[in-house]
Amino acid sequence: EYTIDGKEEDTYLQFLPKLALKYAFDPQNNVYASVSRGYRSGGYNIQMFSDTIQGQMRSRPGSEPIGAGSIKEIIRYKPEYSWNYETGSHFTLRQNSLWADIALFYTDIKNQQITRFTKSGLGRIMVNAGHSRSYGAEASLRANITDAISFNANYGYTHATFTDYKTNQIVEDKEVTIDYTGKRVPFVPMHTLSVGGQYTLKCGKNSFVDELRFHADYAGAGKIYWTEKNDVAQNFYGTLNWRISVISSNAQVDFRMRNALNQKYATFYFESMGRGFTQAGRPMEFGADVRWRF
């Protein structure tokens, strides 16, 4: 018979400073910079209890009960700390018609919390990487080309890597040390992109319909690594979406299509019993919404 005796708890208290500076050229144009301390509390992988107990039973039949102290070291993950640096600007390039934003960021993370598949292959747990670093840029542009036509575009680039991460794992029934230093942090897309536009057609006063709106956008992301080993990844992909809205004074009907090109892509990856599986993204969808105001 195996038992676990005792009670364990952790208390976290952190000081999270932030310094932000902004210089405004005028009410609509400015530059800014900020430095802030980030924090995510630690915790326990409760789902690891069964794996731990089964492992003890297989390796040490008839041994003494497992102490709570040793269990804590196995299932506990540490708090995550980060320093975040950002600088950027907001500009109005043309009054009431053209706006641009740009930002540069750098993040240094200690004990980054990442998810990993359990040794049994059933479920995932939270673990700590040693150190990681993330830097990149974001830019956006919005424009009212005419009273009827609007346009927007956004792009982001992120380079996130482990700068010091060594961990012990079981490989072919042997515990070995694996060095992930220099590998990409999983689940972080390298590129994100969106481009969209809308055309609004005003109808006559005597028309049953007040206006028609035609909206289309393209959104993409990738490359995304799913594991610390960087052996499984989703390449860059994009989906095209559109919507047509028929609007009157008290009603609106929307006809919409998502993933109009029926792009095949994965939104998630997991492993179970030594095999890898991907969760497919949503296929082409067509629908309609009706709203009526009383």
UniProtKB/TrEMBL annotation:
InterPro entries named in the record: Beta-barrel_TonB, Beta-barrel_TonB_sf, TonB-dep_rcpt-like
Compartment(s) where it occurs, according to its Swiss-Prot or TrEMBL record: Cell outer membrane
PROSITE patterns from the UniProt entry: TONB_DEPENDENT_REC_3
Topology in membrane: Multi-pass membrane protein
Organism taxonomic ancestry: unclassified sequences, metagenomes, organismal metagenomes
Protein species of origin: termite gut metagenome
Residue intervals of the TonB-dependent receptor-like beta-barrel domain: 10-246
Keyword Ion transport: yes
Name under which the protein is recorded: TonB-dependent receptor-like beta-barrel domain-containing protein
GO annotations of cellular component type: cell outer membrane
Gene Ontology process terms (BP): iron ion transport
Keywords recorded for this protein, A-Z: Cell outer membrane, Ion transport, Iron, Iron transport, Membrane, TonB box, Transmembrane, Transport
